[in-house]
Amino acid sequence: MPRYAAIDIGSNSVRMMAAETERGGPLKVLAEDRQVTRLGESVFRTGSIDPAALEYLCGILARMVAAYRPLGVLAVRAVATAAVRDASNGEEFVQRVSGILGQPVEVISGQEEARLIHLGVETRWPHPDERILIVDIGGGSAEIIEAEHGLMKAAFSRPLGAVRLHSVFLQSDPPLPEDLRRMGEFIEEKLAIVSRRIEKGGFARAIGTSASASAIVCAANRIPRARRPEADRRRASLVQIRRLYKSLATMKLDERRKVVGIGPRRAEIILPGAAVLAAVMEHFQISQLAYCSAGVRDGILRDLAERGVGRERTRLDNEQRLQVEQFARRFGVDLRHARRVCIFARELFQALEPWHRLSPEQCRLLEASAYLRDVGHAINDMSHHKHSQYIVANSDIAGFTDQERIEVAMLCRYHRKAMPGTRHADFLQLPPERQRVVFLLAPLLRIADALDRSRDQRVAGIQCELRAGAFCLTIEASEDTGLEQWAVERAAAQFRQVYQKPLTVTSARL
C-alpha cells in the first residue's frame, strides 16, 4: 500500500502525518507529530515572520523529516497557510523551509485550505448523503465550508484565526470588556458576507475541526487533555460554548490553564476560538457542534492518494521502458508475456511495501528484470537465468546506471532455481544494502513470473492482502488457472525463506 507524508505549517502550529493509504481506503497512520510555534504572532503584529520563530520552526521540521524519511513514502506535500500568506518576508521563509524539507513548500490560498479540510473530514467522517457545515479555526484564518452529498458546495476563508485575533485585540490579562466587545464586532463584520452566501439552518450536522474546537468540546464534556482523542465526534451545544466563553473571559491566564480540557498553550488563545465558534453557530442557527480530529494533513494525504502522486517513481519512465523492450526484442523475448509479468511484479512490490520497506525507485529495477530475465534463452535454454545475468551485466542499456544494471542482472539470475548463497561470488561482491535489495525482490519476480506460467494471460488480475502476519494472494480469472496456482505455490518456499511469512494462494472466478 502506498505511503505519503503531509506537513501543515499553520499560524499557530506545525503538524506532520505519514500514513499508508490508497484510493478510497482508510488512513493507517505510521507517524505523526504536532508542535506549537506561534509563527503568526509576529506577522499579525509587525507584518513579518520573526527570525527566532523561523529558526525554531526549522528545528522542528528537521525532526519531522527524520521521522517520515525512513518510512519510504512515495510523496510529500508541505503547505503553509495564513501567516505566510500575509508575511512580508514570505519568500525568504519559503526558501529556508524548502531547504530543510528538500522540496518546495506551497503557500496555499484560503480556498485550497478549505478544500483540503473538507477532504480530510470526508476521509475521517464521511457524509455522502447529507448537508453539513464545517468550521475550522486556525491560527490566522477561519474556514467555513458548506458541503452536500460529500462535495464542497461553498467555502470562505476569513481572517478570524485565534492567534490573529488574540494578537490584535487581547493584550490584557484578563481581557478588558472593551477589547472583547471590539473583537466581537470584528468577528461579526467578517462573518457578514458568509452569512449572506450560505443558507441558514437545515444542516444534518455542524462539525468543528482544529485544536480550538477540540479544546472547547473537551472542556464542555470534562475530557482531560491527556484523553483528547476521546473528543472525536463528541459534541458541545451553543449554550455550553456561550457559558464557557463567559466564564473564561473573567479568568486570568493561570486560571484558564487549569480548566479541564484546555492545554497550557491553548489557554492563551482559547477566547478568540470560542468567540468565533459561538458566532458561527448563531449565524447559521446551529444548536450543536461535533468535533472531528481531521485537518489539512488528512486532506493532503487523501488528495495525494486519489491522484496517485509519486506512483511514477515506481515505474520505468518512457525512455527506460523503450530501451528494455528494444533490448528484450533483440533477444527474442515474448514481450506480451514480459509486460504481464511486469504488471504483476509492480503490484506485488506495492502490496508488500510495509514488509520490504524499499524505496519506490527499486520497483523500476524489478520491472526491468521482468522484461530481461529471459534474454538468456537466446544462448541456451539450459541455465538461461545465468546467461541472462551475463548478457544484462555486460551490455550497455541506456537509462540505467552501472550499479542499477548489475542489480537488474542479479534479479535475472535469481528469478529461478537457487536463491543467493555464500557460493555466489558475483552476489557477494555487491554492497550489503544492494544484496538486501536483490534478496527482497527476487521472490516477487518469481511469483510474478509464475502468475503467467502458461503464457496464455489466464490471470485477469490479483488481489493482495497482508493479513494476520501472512501474505494472502487471490488469483482472479474466468478460466482455469491451476497451472499458475501450482507455480505460485512452488515460489512460496523462497518467499517464506526471505520474508519469514507464509504465502497463501486462492483463486476467484470472475
The overall average pLDDT, rounded, is 95
What Rg, in angstroms, do the CA atoms define?
Answer: 28 Å
In quaternary terms, these chains amount to single chain
What is the count of β-strands? Answer: 14
The spatial strand order of the largest sheet comes to: 8-7-6-9-11-10
| Silhouette | elongated
* Helix/strand/pairing category: alpha/beta
Q: Give the biggest beta sheet.
A: 6 strands, mixed
- Number of helical runs? 21
Termini separation: 24 Å
What is the helical fraction, as a range of percent? 40-55%
Low-confidence segments: none
Strand content: 15-25%
Structure in words:
The longest helix is centred in the middle third of the chain and has 21 residues, at 177-197. Helix content is 49%, strand content 17%. The strands form 3 sheets. The chain has a 6-stranded mixed sheet, with helices on both faces. A 5-stranded mixed sheet has the order 3-2-1-4-5, with helices on both faces. With 510 residues, it is an alpha/beta fold. The radius of gyration is 28 Å and the shape is elongated.
